[in-house]
Amino acid sequence: MDLVVGVDWGTRRHMVVVVDAVAGDIVLEQEVAHEGPALLKLCERIYELADGNRVQVGIERPHGVIVDVLHGYGFEVYAWNPKQTVAWRGASNNSNAKDDRRDADAIADALRARPQFFRRIEQPHAEAVELREVLATRQVMVRDLSAVKNRIWAKMQSAFPTLWPMLDLSREWARPLVQKLLVVKAPWRLRLSSIEAALGTARRVDAQSVKAALLADRSTIETPSGQSARQLARHQFGALTALIEARRSVEAQRDR
Predict the structure, then answer these.
(1) Is there a contact between 14 and 32 (Cβ–Cβ < 8 Å)?
(2) 252 and 132 in contact (C-beta within 8 Å)?
(3) What span, in angstroms and rounded, lies between the C-alpha atoms of 75 and 58?
(4) How many CA atoms lie within 13 A of 240 on its CB side?
(5) H-only helix segments in 78-223
């Protein structure tokens, strides 16, 4: 028999209601964990119930693992806005309280009665799926990088109040110098040649200015608070370096 399926999407679990497309009777009602084996088992069960007939699935999210799995079984996947679920549920029920089972039932009922309210989600090319996931991963990495930079900035500002405004961790040339400042015991004793080597291709900052700022900051660097700030910043710097390398790898994958 032809089937219509309503899926109320959840972060960890999904509520699923399967109805007969003609009679409208519920033939399966199940909560399924957002895990590969559980999703595959559910799709296998729906596939068996359909017995080779048409399966239409309504869902509130147009992409993700569950959508890919549904497409893998040859099911037709349709999406609509979650606000439409609330409106449809409210039209058929006096209670507006959130109920996963009623939401899944409302989605299935709406798809069966008013399929024009939904947008069909075509199965994307495998590389398109990969690109989407890569872009999402990069977005998270950019946010994490910003958070780590802010934490380092807060610590370095207390230890190097004069020097720190001259540096920018988003610049490639600044990171080797910052790393050196966090490792050496007495940063104000660094030789000009060492500072120049760390600065590399820097244009707006020169070794003489850095040396003068370090000497001015000696009193704050030597304090217990300054030493503690440097130690904490050193731990954060390791995380920053790892994130930058990971982002480069992800961006190379994106470009390919």
Answers:
(1) yes
(2) no
(3) 10
(4) 23
(5) 82-92, 100-113, 126-159, 174-183, 192-199, 207-216, 218-221
Query: Tell me: the pLDDT tens digits for 48-80?
Result: 999 889 999 999 888 888 888 898 888 999 998
**Per this entry, what is the length of the chain?**
256
Contact 173, 202 (CB under 8 A): yes
Contact 142, 121 (CB under 8 A): no
Whole-model pTM: value is: 0.53
- The span from the CA of 29 to the CA of 19, in Å, is 9
CA angle (141, 143, 148) in 5-degree steps? 90
- Are 58 and 4 contacting, i.e. CB atoms less than 8 angstroms apart? yes
What mean pLDDT, rounded, does the chain reach?
87
Determine which of 116-120, 142-146, 197-201 has the lowest per-residue pLDDT on average. Answer: 197-201
